[in-house]
Amino acid sequence: MNVPTDSLSDLVVERVGFGIFVLDRDMNVLMWNRFMQDHSGLSPEQMVGKSLFAHFPELPRVWLSRKIESVFQLGSFAFSSWEQRPYLFKFDHDRPITGGVDFMQQDCTFMPLMRDREVVAVCVTISDVTHVSIVQREREEAVAKLQEYADRDGLTGIANRRFFEARLRDEFTRWQRYGGEMSVLLFDLDHFKKINDQFGHGVGDTVLRVMAQRVAEVVRVQDTFGRFGGEEFALLLPCTPLEDAMRVAEKIRCTIADTPVEVQGAGVPVTASVGGAAARVGVPAYDVLINEADAALYSAKRQGRNRSVAFS
User: Fold this and answer.
1) What residue stretches are annotated with the PAS domain (predicted)?
2) Where residue 230 sits, what CATH number does that domain have?
3) Residue 25: which CATH number?
């Protein structure tokens, strides 16, 4: 049986799994396929001969008009990815709500329809890429979580030493270029080995977690607080002179010492010694700041612990 080619073409256009519609230069609809009807609730009879914006006033009129006009002028294809513009039409999608998208994510292709080497209309296709977008977002979120875990200390949840030193290096480079103020504090918990020996390493881990949480709650958003290893911690204070940094050191010391850590019904007293250093002319590298803050920390230890000392 011979089927007219035109009929086959019409059948394909109606049954394909993506949207197809055609616009003239005035943005009037010349064709509207089944996909567009099913997802918009508007039939070809309602759409053809009407301005696209008459039924879809929420469309990005300026952007879409420019896109269509560029195809008319240049006679070449144009494309818009969901990554650039998540959707053109606010169509519902059939993916789970947990996918995190409100509307069908769409790729759009704009094709010139030529007659006698002149563009007479533009065919727009709408592809449902919701599943692809959800998978990609989930992949990006997973990568971001892995990166976050790579930057975090496994026990306390604060920054680890690698991430802290990277931030310190960047901040020191910024200070070298633009000047200003920058300080670093190092502190560790006094006689922490005795806590482990007397109460066990499980209690010692709890003490480290509680101390990290207490300090994290009193530092600024722009500061970087990290665990340097064992019971030693570090705090990067951008735009902060040493005098102000030592006030922060005292605040941290008091925050740690004022309230014993409650573990298994017992109060475990904890204190900390703090050393501070600041960037200044003549400091050649960021690791010198660490060494100076470390020297100040050990000076605090020698002076009896549970105190803050600035490097000088």
Assistant:
1) 5-56
2) 3.30.70.270
3) 3.30.450.20
| Strand pairing category for 78-80 and 232-238 | unpaired
Residue 248 to residue 238: CA distance in whole angstroms: 13
Q: How many domains does the chain have?
A: 2
**Which of 84, 105, 136 represents a domain boundary (last residue)?**
136
For the whole model, what pTM was predicted?
Answer: 0.60
Please give the structure tokens belonging to residue 9.
Answer: 């073409």
Find the helix packing angle between 201-216 and 192-199, rounded to 10°.
130
What are the pLDDT digits (tens) for 86-128? 999 999 887 766 557 889 999 999 999 999 989 999 999 999 9
Kindly report the length of the chain.
Answer: 312
The span from the CA of 212 to the CA of 227, in Å, is 8
Count CB atoms within 10 A of the CB of residue 7: 9
CB atoms within 10 A of CB 174: 14
End-to-end CA distance of the chain: 98
